[in-house]
Amino acid sequence: MIKILFVCHGNICRSTMAQYVFQNMVNKAGLADSFYIDSAATSREEIGNPPHHGTRRKLRHEGIPCGDHRARQMRAEEYDRFDYIIGMDSWNIRNIMRILGNGDPDGKVSKLLDFTDRKGDDIADPWYTGNFDVTYRDVKEGCEALLEECLLRL
User: What is the pLDDT of residues 65-115, one digit of tens each?
Assistant: First the structure.
């Protein structure tokens, strides 16, 4: 089983969007039993809150089920539980590394767009931009590329 943790600042916009987009792709491919997918925040600001209404609205528009995930903060011990820890932007990566404390000895931490030919690019935070369409486009592109990478491991 491949275990993936998507991470953003508050765990209500980008990481939850990535979680549900990736889960939908996996389900459609008939691979649900091969993956465990979750999301978390680097901050404590939104703990307990549901996905942002803009994320829910965009996912609904795309026909992607949005579950009842509640924002939570990533914990250092999760490093050993996940195969991939995927941040949405450079700031997330810095904060993930701060939470982990001991670096990334197994090379599990990366940005979502690192799996595309846009390596190094950030996924814009729609909390600030208000543009959930652009965020969805980038999340979808990253998730498609991540799934291709994961299929090589199955």
Answer: 998 999 999 999 999 999 999 999 999 999 999 999 989 999 999 999 999
Is 70 part of the annotated catalytic residue set?
no
Tens of pLDDT, residue by residue over 39-78, are 999 999 999 999 999 999 999 999 999 989 999 999 999 9
Which token pair is 5?
């943790």
Which among 2, 13, 19, 6 has a CA at the least distance from the CA of 125? 13
Strands (E), 50-115: 84-87, 109-111
CA distance 128 to 38: 23
**CATH 1.20.1250.20 assigned to 2-151:** no
> What is the Cα–Cα distance from 70 to 78, expressed in whole angstroms?
17
Domain spans in the chain, listed from the N-terminal domain onward:
2-151
Of 79, 75, 67, 84, the residue nearest 17 (C-alpha): 67
Query: Which of 38, 125, 143, 150 is flagged as catalytic?
Result: 125
Q: Is 89 a catalytic residue?
A: no
The verdict on whether 8 is a catalytic residue reads yes
